[in-house]
Design goal:
The chain is built from 13 helices and ten strands. Strands 1-10-7-6-5-4-3-2 form an eight-stranded parallel β-sheet. A two-stranded antiparallel sheet has the order 8-9. It is α/β, with parallel strands linked by helices. Helix 4 packs parallel to helix 13 and helix 6 crosses helix 8. Helix 11 links the parallel strand 6 and strand 7. Helix content is about 45%, strand content about 15%.
Length: about 325
């Protein structure tokens, strides 16, 4: 990517909706991976990387314009806790990008896949500081760290991921503004680095730490290398109100990739409630009407949901903008 190139520019100029992928961990678990581990899906980078590439391939086939890498839980601290060296951690982080790129390149090598589509992108996932703690703090915030400390935490993993050549970064499931600002500030240290920033929200107005989402997006407005902002890992019922408040605040493209709508039972460690790809796509239409330009899924969504979103998104006659 040349310096100055926004990787989303062509997609936003030609498509009403940019289709993101869905959950990675959900699909890996469905394929027999044991994710009961502090490393979560990053464990599969060590044990079965070929399955990760297969999941990426399935999302591209379903219609995703963007693959998000298996690096959400990949941190130097987390890998060190597993006994891996700094160099091994870098190798695994970069493997996450290489797997997504390989899946993308194989998909794009088929002429039939190019009809009516732009070459898909690879977004390197950057999970929040709390993710490596594996104690749920990414859904609470209140880390007790300032922006400088959060920049120090994220800087080396951004360097490792960007060296592998993703198209952009997916700074996602952030519970608080301090971490979002830390990541936004870091982008200026890396030539040609662009990112989207996405918050997890606890209700229809606030991020998980309790800050107003509108205030968070307003604080990010001046960061040019943040090319989209929005919401992920959030209950779908909260999304329309969150998007409407966001659309009044920011001129940046809005993105949303919420959970499936099922409810998690932490006592029994299982999910309850309906999961219907058609209903998810119908809700996605409402999110688009509320201002979302990039739409996908987070926890408990899969290729079926993404295929349903892509089906109407590519047939949609609404002009971009």
């Amino acid at each position: 990517m040349r310096e100055g190139d926004n990787p989303l520019r062509d997609f936003l100029a030609t498509q009403s909706v940019v289709v993101l992928d869905g959950a990675l961990a959900t699909e890996l678990a469905a394929r027999g991976c044991d994710l009961n581990d502090p490393l979560w899906s990053a464990r599969v980078l060590i044990e079965a990387p070929e399955l990760i590439q297969q999941v990426h391939a399935d999302y591209f086939a379903a219609g995703a314009d963007v693959a998000t890498t298996a690096s959400y839980q990949a941190t130097f601290e987390g890998f060190a806790r597993r006994g891996l060296t700094h160099e091994q951690a870098i190798e695994l982080m970069q493997r996450s990008v290489e797997l997504a790129r390989s899946a993308r390149d194989a998909f794009w090598a088929e002429p039939a896949h190019r009809e009516g589509r732009l070459r898909p992108l690879v977004a390197a996932s950057v999970g929040p500081y709390g993710a490596w703690l594996a104690d749920g703090s990414e859904y609470r915030g209140h880390y007790g760290l300032d922006e400088a400390a959060l920049m120090d935490f994220h800087r080396p993993r951004l360097a490792a991921l960007l060296a592998a050549g993703p198209d952009l970064l997916a700074c996602e499931t952030l519970p608080c503004l301090a971490e979002a600002r830390a990541l936004a500030r870091l982008l200026s240290e890396f030539p040609s680095a662009y990112a989207w920033i996405s918050f997890s929200c606890r209700d229809d107005a606030h991020n998980c730490q309790g800050e107003a989402l509108a205030d968070c997006l307003a604080a990010l407005e001046g960061f040019e290398r943040v090319v989209a902002v929005g919401i992920n890992c959030t209950a779908p019922t909260f999304v329309p109100a969150l998007l409407r408040s966001a659309a009044r605040i920011t001129r940046k493209p809005l993105l949303v990739y919420p959970n499936s709508g099922e409810q998690y039972d932490p006592a029994n460690k299982c999910w309850h409630g309906p999961r219907d790809a058609g209903e998810f796509a119908a809700a996605a239409r409402d999110w688009h009407r509320a201002g979302a330009r990039l739409i996908g899924g987070c926890c408990r969504t899969g290729p079926a949901e993404i295929a349903a979103v892509a089906a109407w998104a590519r047939a949609d006659t609404v002009a971009p903008g």
